[in-house]
UniProtKB/TrEMBL annotation:
Transmembrane segments: none
Record localization: Cell membrane
Sequence ranges assigned to domain ABC transporter in this UniProt record: 9-235
InterPro entries: AAA+_ATPase, ABC_transporter-like_ATP-bd, ABC_transporter-like_CS, ABC_transporter_ATP-binding, P-loop_NTPase
SMART domains in alphabetical order: AAA
Topology term for the membrane: Peripheral membrane protein
First-listed, main subcellular location of the protein, grouped into a coarse class: membrane
Protein name: ABC transporter ATP-binding protein
Annotated GO MF terms: ATP binding
Taxonomic classification: Bacteria, Bacillati, Actinomycetota, Actinomycetes, Kitasatosporales
Cross-referenced PANTHER family: ABC TRANSPORTER ATP-BINDING PROTEIN (PTHR42711)
Alphabetic keyword roster: Antibiotic resistance, ATP-binding, Nucleotide-binding, Transport
Amino acid sequence: MTDTDQAVIEVDGLRRGYSGGFEAVRGISFSVARGEVFALLGTNGAGKTSTVELLEGLAAPSAGTVRVFGLDPYRQRAAVRPRTGVMLQEGGFAADLTVTETVRMWSGVTSGARPAAEALALVGLTGRASVRVKQLSGGERRRLDLALALLGRPEVLFLDEPTTGMDPEGRRDTWELVRSLQAQGTTVLLTTHYLEEAEQLADRLAILHEGELVLSGTPAEVTATRPARIRFTLPAGVAPARLPLSLRAAAQGRRVEIRTERLQRSLAELLAWAEASDVELTGLDARSASLEEAFLEIAQQRRAGGLGDFDDQMAGAR
């Protein structure tokens, strides 16, 4: 195993319980390789933030182990913390300080901190340096959170919902920053509700549901197990029953949707039939499954207790 393949985050049988008997994390295991972007996904209450807090060393696990750089982030926090950057869901800033004053205050407790101007330039806040924190928008506060997480040039960066509240431009800029940090060797673990964000950034991902790790893999592995779809509208007078029987078609009036595991073959068959039948397919749209579609279907199957088939598909994909 090379340095770039070595796991810098290792989680084994991790559990986290709270008073009253509630268990937010229920025996999950995964690892993150050096230089990898790894996304934790899940609905609200799935256990994402509870897991990340254990990785950050903010609490001790109820059971199982966490290792960051081979160290216990809770008991050996003094050795781990200087090498990590943490972006929490909420920063808790002093409202009356300016942006620059806030960064300089954090710099005072950060080993080897970047200059404040450099940190603000990274996240696009140079023009807001003299503005008081209370005057920032929600998206700008998230950028300030990110600037503070990057102060110490971290080897591992934890991002908890990093682009919440940002406008589309801010979100794209943050994605580019994460990519550039990865190119420089930074390992990134992020949680997000934006599935496009995970699809764009993550090398691998894990989906949590009610504290359990349902599956992990690359975005391509997850989406490849879901059928692609072809949608179109038939002309008046052409019944869906005329479509080739080999195409699994469902119709609502003249609007038709075909689900298929072989998109190219099914689309070629459909187009050949349309050409031979002199039928124009209006609004034709063919695409592979998105991570969002896969995630929603997995969540529905999990609630219904029918995830066994998906596990079998994932095993086949590997």
